[in-house]
Design a protein that fits this description.
With 174 residues, the chain is α+β, with helices and mostly antiparallel strands. Helices cover 13% and strands 23% of the residues. The strands form two sheets. The chain has a six-stranded antiparallel sheet with strand order 3-4-8-7-6-5, with no helix packed on it. A three-stranded antiparallel sheet has the order 2-1-9, with no helix packed on it. It binds fe (iii) ion.
């Protein structure tokens, strides 16, 4: 199953630097809910989120839109560090759980902490899927599937737009 998910193109692609604006999406001071240290759960209306989030982040996090495959900044990115929620700053994934997937979206086999994310069943578009939401702001992140690699067998299929990557040289390379 794992091999079926590996894309030749993604395996051979060299690590690319994220676009400059990617690092600070949602963290430019106009979003008072963004914090990488405060883990208090947020209960913020969509009307309020719309005022403080970049439109691209709002569309995915709050209206469950999906970025087009192979267009996001992280699907073939191999930097060493941590991925935070672009809406609220919650730490979500580490690069050591990221794997090359041919699906066109950044893919991880486990969350940074069990409660970093939460799950809801999603039966839209005639499919039975499990939605992954941020554990702090409940923003939509993507979906989770059972065709990931060991040790979990899970594939967190995420949208790059709702992730903020921060390099962390203290984390080991895979
Ligand atoms: Fe969040």
């Amino acid at each position: 199953m794992f091999l079926a998910c590996i894309g030749v193109a993604s395996c051979q692609t060299q690590p690319a630097a994220p676009k400059a604006e990617a690092k600070l999406v949602g963290a430019k001071g106009q979003n008072p809910y963004y914090s990488r240290t405060d883990t208090t759960k947020l209960h913020v209306s969509n009307a309020e989120w719309k005022k403080v989030l970049p439109e691209s982040v709002y569309l995915i996090a709050r209206t469950k839109s999906t970025e087009r495959a192979f267009t996001g900044k992280y699907w073939d990115f191999e930097g060493i560090g941590t991925y935070f929620c672009a809406a609220c700053g919650n730490a979500l994934f580490r690069s050591d759980s990221k794997f090359a997937s041919s699906c066109g979206w950044p893919s991880f086999f486990e969350a940074l902490r069990p409660n970093a994310v939460k799950y809801e069943s999603d039966n839209t578009y005639g499919m039975v899927r499990t939605e992954v939401l941020c554990g702090r702001c409940e923003g939509h992140l993507g979906h989770i599937f059972d065709d990931g690699p060991e040790p979990t067998g899970k594939r967190f299929c995420m949208n790059s737009i709702v992730l903020d990557f921060e390099p962390d040289p203290t984390l080991k390379s895979k």
